[in-house]
Amino acid sequence: MSETDEAPPAVPATHRALREPARGAAAPPPRPKGSGRAGRDVPLAVGVGLGLGAVLIASLFIRKEAFLVLVIVMVGMAIWEFAAALRTRDIRVPLVPLWVGSAGMLISAYVVGAEALVVAFILAAGGIFVWRLIDGGGRQAVRDAGAGIFAAAYLPFLAGFAVLLLRELDGPQRVLFFIALVAASDTGGFAAGVMFGKHPLAPSVSPKKSWEGAAGSAVLASVVGALLMWGFFHGPLWAGVLIGLLTVVAATLGDLSESLLKRDLGLKDMGSLLPGHGGIMDRLDSMLIAAPFVYGSLSVTLAFT
């Protein structure tokens, strides 16, 4: 190099660190196999979903009380997940009266009916409040009791409408109709969202939900609703379509509501009991809100057709 040639300027160490990855630094974790655009292990999620569906259907047609027991157990596990999530915000839900009240609501709904479900909820709410006050008063007690009463309304009370479907003479068919509609809404939304989703439905709450997915939910739930309305109850096809569309709206609201709750708590999933899905609450979210709508609309439809 001649004296007139200039040496290239030295690159500061900090700039080199930004340009070149540090030696021995860990590479970003690979996306789970089979997750694709869905962000989850799809084959595992499908397998767990089919297995859970098989258990639900088997319990329906072996003996109706077996399905009731299954609902009580699943709601109890969902309560435990919900309480664990709230503990991250230093909210302690009174679990014992909540579990007892939950079982009481669901059994009352099956044995007596809708009026007993409402009465059992009121008694459970009072028991939760008194239990927490006995354990200590103050603002924290009011917070904990309020969260417990909310949990009682959100989980066992809404699940009680599925039990009200079950107690009818054709209860297994009504419950299967309800489950099939929610499953069709979820499946249609997932498939259409993965393949065509471009326009977010509620980006600030659930970025992966799209209007295209909502359209897929509406199409599949309408078809399933019409077919099962005719096949199970010999009812009009248009009624099945309407109940299917109503289920899509309710199920979507339920899903978005739980997404909003998880976002507020800083959680991705409410639990990890169901591989590929998250927790029990992550599977029940759409069903809980849809249950009273399907119960009411199906009861009215069958009463006048």
Describe it.
The chain is an all-alpha fold and 305 residues long. It has two domains: 64-167; 169-259 and 280-305, no CATH class. The protein is 72% helix and 3% strand. It has helices at 13-19, 42-62, 64-87, 95-111, 114-134, 139-166, 171-196, 211-233, 237-265, 280-303, and strands at residues 200-202, 206-210. It has a two-stranded antiparallel ribbon with strand order 1-2. Helix 2 packs across helix 3. The protein is globular and about 55 Å long. Residues 1-36 have low confidence and may be disordered.
Distance between the termini: 97 Å
Q: Could you spell the SSE succession in H and E letters? A: HHHHHHHEEHHH
Helix content: over 70%
Radius of gyration, in Å, reads 25 Å
Number of strands: 2
The shape is globular
Q: In what order do the strands lie side by side in the largest sheet? A: 1-2
Biggest sheet record: 2 strands, antiparallel
Q: What is the number of domains?
A: 2
Number of separate helices: 10
Low-confidence stretches: 1-36
Structural class computed from helices and strand pairing: mainly alpha
Calculate the mean pLDDT score and round it: 85
Percent strand equals under 5%
Name some characteristics of this structure.
305 residues; two-stranded antiparallel sheet
